[in-house]
Amino acid sequence: MFESQPSRDPGSQRVTRRIFLSTGIAAVGAALLSLRHPHHALADEEPSHPGEPVVIVLFSDDGKRLRKVTMPKVVKSTSEWQKQLPPNVYDIARLADTEVAYSGSLWNQHKRGLYRCICCDTALFNSDTKFESGTGWPSFWAPIAKENVAEQHDTTLGMVRTAVSCRLCDAHLGHVFTDGPHPTGLRYCMNSASLRFAPHSA
Ligand SMILES: [Zn+2]
Known about the structure:
Blueprint lengths: L9 H14 L4 H9 L12 E11 L5 E11 L2 H7 L2 H7 L19 E5 L5 E4 L3 E2 L7 E2 L8 E6 L6 E6 L5 E6 L9 E4 L4 E5 L3
Antiparallel strand pairs: 1-2, 3-4, 3-11, 5-6, 6-10, 7-8, 8-9, 9-10
The site of zinc ion has 8 residues, from loops.
């Protein structure tokens, strides 16, 4: 995700192994990351940089589809995301936590507008596709553009689900289920915390 061609230099791998053995369990996460980033012992602290290019669709706040663009993925370090986001939002958007049902600010939001990524402002959902699911989470039957979201097989918590994330910055948004309404039969069950509501101006 960060580097397409990780170094295979045997010297740096030896260093990585030494670090791994000498820093104990507390550093296991950092050491594992350093295996993918042989030249950065603290890869987690690598500052923001452009990632691999992705295609997304830009929308104005009044819901007008503007154009497709190719943009580098937004990649930031843990500390940069923690500075940008409140702790509860960070836990949900960057660590794939789930907000408590009915606790978010958007499940009962029925104004016309766009729902954008809280991390990178990519347009994700339009109020036209929002419906009352009775779940306590904002629910939509389609994303605003299929290009703007990514879906991954998710087997955490002993369940088989499809996780949904922002294409541009990989923010965790929620999950999609197949018990939604017409016309798609899909239910995008999102976390309010991962979304920013931008009301239509008119
Ligand atoms: Zn995003």
